[in-house]
Amino acid sequence: MKENDAIISWKIAGVALGLLLTLATFLVKPLGVSTQFVVTDAIAVHAVAPAAAESNTYLAKYGVKDEWSIGYGWMLVAGMFAGGLITSRLLRAKQPEADKGSMPPMWAAVFGGSRKKRFVSAFFGGVLLLFGARLAGGCTSGHMISGMSQLALSSFVFGVFTFGAAILAAHILYRKRG
After folding, report:
1. Exposure class string for 128-163: b at 16+ Cβ within 10 A, else e
2. Is the dihedral of CA 45, 46, 48, 54 positive or negative?
3. What ranges in the chain are assigned the alpha helix state H?
4. What's the whole-model pTM score?
5. Using alpha carbons only, what angle is made at residue 153 by residues 83 and 72, rounded to the nearest 5 degrees?
6. What is the pLDDT of residue 68?
7. CA–CA separation, 32 vs 34, rounded Å?
8. Are 62 and 34 in contact (CB under 8 A)?
9. Contact 104, 97 (CB under 8 A)
10. Sign of the C-alpha dihedral computed for residues 90, 91, 93 and 95 taken in this order
11. DSSP structural state of residue 142
12. I want to staple 142 with a disulfide (CB 3.0 to 4.6 A). Which of 85, 92, 118, 138 is the partner?
């Protein structure tokens, strides 16, 4: 898809995202979603085994009358899924791989055309990403969008290493075979 074919210019979308982020930070707090999974775990463990939750330093921090209770954060998570689904349906015809059965040509050339294999890879990649996000103390939306906009040094470090790892992984996964 060429830039002229886009429904909205990436420049306008970037400015809109920046304004939305500023408004969200002003009205609520900086955006971030990986914490919601920990909050949900903590709420569940507190409900089932409160002593175990309180004895765990990490879970004790979340889940009991926490300002991040299931609400704002989970609405953001749900909105990401809903927004992705709605956008993919509305813009399906403009997707470069739409005429090839929704399989990106680069993926199919290296890993084959199995939708199941792609789904399983995407799922485990997401799990690995979430684990890394919690290990780093925040996810890409928390660090790279909110943190960088607040000029947090840790977010810039996170961004450099995230892009560096992604570039390295792409070179390894998509290297010419044969």
Report:
1. eeeebbeebebbbbbbbbbbebeebeebeebbeebe
2. positive
3. 10-27, 34-48, 50-55, 57-60, 72-90, 105-111, 115-136, 140, 148-149, 153-173
4. 0.59
5. 30
6. 46
7. 6
8. no
9. yes
10. negative
11. I
12. 138
Token output for 143: 């660090």
In sequence order, what are the residues at sequence separation of 6 or more whose Cβ sits closer than 8 angstroms to the Cβ of residue 156? 147, 148
Residue where the block lists tokens 């899924």: 81
Sign of the CA dihedral running 125, 130, 136, 140: positive
Angstrom distance (rounded) from CA 127 to CA 129: 5
Question: Six-digit token pair at 146?
Answer: 């909110």
Secondary structure in 3-state letters for 76-121 = HHHHHHHHHHHHHHHCHHHCCCHHHCCCCHHHHHHHCCCHHHHHHH
- Residue 34: how many other CB atoms lie within 10 Å: 23
Residue 62 and residue 68 in contact, taking contact as beta carbons nearer than 8 Å: yes
List pLDDT tens digits, range 113-156. Answer: 888 998 899 899 888 887 887 777 777 777 777 787 778 888 88
Residue 124: both structure tokens together? 């485990």
* Pairwise CA distance, residues 82 & 86, whole Å: 6
In 3D space, the residue among 80, 74, 79 whose CA is nearest the CA of residue 40 turns out to be 74
